[in-house]
Design a protein that fits this description.
single chain, alpha+beta, 6-stranded antiparallel beta sheet, two-stranded antiparallel ribbon
């Protein structure tokens, strides 16, 4: 074939495109298991941070298996339902009336970890919040985001923010109240509250709504237990 012809150029380009596509597909498939493992370990780290356990990615799986004794899904009636609490997409789960629960044992006492999902200024918010055996008092919390502004809304992922939730109550006089996120220096009447992020008002409001909306689905699960 004449290498200077148009036909040769078209055939050569087509073959190269196919070869590159095959190599990229093979590489993507080869890396998929590693990507999934990294995603799973990141989720394990987030769940563990909600019970105040900070570990590296390499330690996440072993510590998770050590501390998380049980996991399951419940519906808004508080009943266990089918599905895998760890692998399920939380946004889809909430839409299907399914709510993940992770039961951890810390120093001989159970902690009940619930998933959170909401929206911030620039994208999704999510997190986990753990309560003591009374199913009311917060033991710990962890929050993450997809694209909030560094130094402002992104501060919700820092322990200085999440640490405020320890000891707060979800129920007041047996009524569900959630935990409010308010402007620093302000207060919420009739419920427990924490200070929001200075300069991150919309993100703080997003966390406030996320807490109320997400925890609303767990109310019957929490109140069906002896608190």
């Amino acid at each position: 074939m004449n290498r200077d012809s148009n036909i040769y150029t078209v055939v050569y380009a087509s073959v190269m495109v196919v070869l590159v596509a095959v190599v990229l597909a093979f590489t993507s498939e080869s890396l998929r298991s590693f990507q999934k493992q990294n995603e799973d370990n990141d989720k394990r780290q987030q769940i563990l941070r909600s019970i105040n356990v900070n570990v590296t990615a390499s330690e996440a799986e072993s510590r998770y298996n050590e501390l998380i004794k049980e996991s399951y899904l419940v519906n808004d009636k508080g009943e266990k339902t089918e599905g895998d609490a760890f692998s399920i997409d939380v946004v889809k789960a909430f839409a299907e009336n399914k709510y993940p629960v992770f039961v951890a044992n810390v120093d001989g006492k159970n902690k009940y970890i619930m998933a959170l999902s909401g929206a911030g200024l620039w994208g999704p918010l999510w997190g986990y919040i753990a309560v003591d055996e009374d199913r009311n008092t917060v033991y710990g919390a962890d929050f993450s985001h997809a694209g909030e502004t560094p130094g402002l809304g992104a501060e919700i992922s820092r322990q200085e923010f999440s640490g405020q939730f320890a000891g707060k109550k979800i129920f007041v006089n047996n009524d569900f109240k959630s935990i409010a996120v308010v402007k620093p220096g302000k207060a919420a009447i009739g419920q427990d509250y924490v200070d929001g992020i200075s300069g991150g008002t919309i993100t703080s409001q997003g966390v406030d709504r996320m807490l109320y909306d997400s925890l609303s689905g767990y109310v019957n699960y929490l109140t069906s237990q002896n608190r």
